[in-house]
Amino acid sequence: MSTSESSWIGREVQGDVATIRLRRPEAGNRLTNTMALALAEALDAVRESRVIVLGAEGADFCLGRDMAPPPPGAGVNAADVLRDDAGPIQALYEAFGRCRAPVLGLVAGRAWGIGLVLAARCDLTLCEEGSSFALRELERGIPPCIAMAPLLDRMPAKALAHLVFGAEPIGAREALAAGIVGRIVESGRLQAEGDALVQRLLSFPAPAVQAVKQFLATAPRHYESNAVLYGAGLLANVLGSC
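and the corresponding structure tokens:
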């Protein structure tokens, strides 16, 4: 990774709280493949923190991937797609999954393409009231299936279909209704509201918080009866360790 690209992902740890920032505001924080891998490495480095905060510098959270589609007739094969398109993003998704701590996303401005996915992939997401969200890949002839993968159990299927087929930005209130974000805050209040939520999370016992995160990450894929048994097992582990 070049020196310039290594500086595009910032990481800071203060006590039990880790903060990761996208730091390429002059390019709308567009994510290169090496940035995606660096973000995965940053998440792995702080995954034992009590809380992880993901934010961005500049006016926009992230305008998508910095990756042009291949020209017509380029002869791209499946191996190329798996290596260049899927590989770095899959590594990033897996790094999110390895974090024991809840990841709090702070979104201002536009969260488009992979920016929308990052916002949705966080366990908790605050956005400013003027934020917008979009998956516009169909306009370039690209099916955004890699981006859609982690959204399947976070958004209603109909809302995801309209987002992709409509290929138009939606506002903060629509994103809240669709499950992309969890709360809308007033413009200029994003950091303050994020700090308050971090302190609230820190006020709870860490094992209980981690059990809730684990349950939310896994139980929606279970039948209800199995989810109850799974939740009971997590509860027993937490109470048994007190």
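(Above: one complete record from the training split.) The first strand starts at residue 9 and ends at 14.
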